Amino acid sequence: MPAEETIADAVPNNWVERFAPRKTRPYLRLMRADRPIGTWLLLWPCWWSLALATDLGAWPDPYFMLLFAIGAILMRGAGCTLNDLMDRGFDAKVERTRGRPLPSRLVSPLQAILFFLLLSFSGLLILLQFNNFTILLGLSSLALVAIYPLMKRYTHWPQLVLGLTFNWGALMGWAAVNESLAWPAILLYWAGIFWTLGYDTIYALQDMDDDALIGVKSTALLFKETSRRWVAGFYAVAAVLFLVAGQAAGKGAFYYFIIVALAAQFAWQLSVLRPESASSCLRVFKTNTYAGWILFLGLLAANQL
User: Fold this and answer.
1) Would residue 8 count as lying in a domain?
2) Can you tell me the distance from the alpha carbon of 35 to that of 16, in angstroms, rounded to the nearest whole number?
3) Most exposed of 62, 135, 208, 222 (fewest Cβ within 10 Å)?
4) Position 38 in a domain
5) What's the DSSP call for residue 55?
6) 113-149, pLDDT tens digit by residue?
7) Is there a domain that residue 3 lies in?
8) Interatomic CA distance for residues 36 and 10, integer angstroms
9) Residues 6+ apart with CB under 8 A from 23
């Protein structure tokens, strides 16, 4: 592949490079289809919430699971496209992001806007399959989606806004089942926010030098050499809130073992993390997919046991 098409943090020989028609590749990269970790991180709160709302002895509705999966792909793509439109000037100055479709001029701003509108409309069609309460709840998240790309310009806490945005599915999954909200969903939402504060601080450690030079803010730049301790604190609060959310939903004793396994995965991340190494930060960040699986499969098992 031409050097200008290579994305620094994409897995080599991913499915987009290997199988996608050449003309579609810039758009697939724009929506991060070659880097699915973000889609998983957006999807997990939705699936967790479905499992949390499911009665003991039952299974989450597979139709809802499919809708949330498609919606996560579309809305993560739309969010990334909007983010890259707003950040294309910054991205061109950062080593890790200068190969993205907009700063490398493989996609024009007008093409990106039209692609964003297509993804957003498709996401709306998915949202309309749910009950009215869930539809209104989903629409109310658009303000967070819109302001997130701007936060790194004004605050060292864009990771908090990302957490508020990315974990909205923790509310929507519960609403899809119950047509209302309750404490288990709210506790799950805040657990996800602290989880995001942890993993996205790890992600931001990759770009500290470039971000400092161009004036972009992050929790990594705020915490600097104390970042590992802050991440440990965020993960600890997340684990406690995940536990309390399960208790509030009436999950059985087996759920405690799942939280222990989840906490162990968090501890492992901290033990192998090398904040000074960008490659280490990216590898550790990506293991949060495993954290998602641990909690989701654990909730399924707790419902059955």
Assistant:
1) no
2) 9
3) 62
4) yes
5) P
6) 999 999 999 999 999 999 999 999 999 999 998 898 8
7) no
8) 9
9) none
Q: How far apart are CA 305 and CA 244, in angstroms?
A: 18
- The dihedral region occupied by 35, where left means phi > 0, alpha psi between -120 and 50, and beta the remainder, is beta
Backbone angles phi, psi at 162, to 5 degrees: -60, -40
Q: Output the DSSP codes for 118-146.
A: HHHHHHHHHHTTS-HHHHHHHHTTHHHHH
Tokens of 274: 């090398």
Q: By CB neighbour count within 10 A (0-12 exposed, 13-18 middle, 19+ buried), where does 155 fall?
A: middle
pLDDT at residue number 173 = 97
Burial 20-51 (b: 16+ CB within 10 A, else e): beeeebbbbbbbbbbbbbbbbbbbbbbbbbbb
191-202 per-position pLDDT tens digit = 999 999 999 999
pLDDT value of residue 49: 98
Domain range holding 94? 21-304
Q: What angle do CA 286, 219, 83 make, to 5 degrees?
A: 65
Residue 255: give its domain's CATH number. Answer: 1.10.357.140
Report if residue 2 sits inside a domain. no
Residue 5 has pLDDT above 60, yes or no: no
Looking at residue 6, what is its pLDDT?
55
CB-count burial class (<10 Å; 0-12, 13-18, 19+) for 180: exposed
Residue 1: CB atoms within 10 Å: 11
Contact 120, 73 (CB under 8 A): no
Specify the residue for token string 């970042």: 227
What is the pLDDT at residue 9? Answer: 58
- Taking a C-beta distance cutoff of 8 angstroms, is the pair 163, 183 a contact? no
C-alpha 10/C-alpha 25 separation (Å) is 13
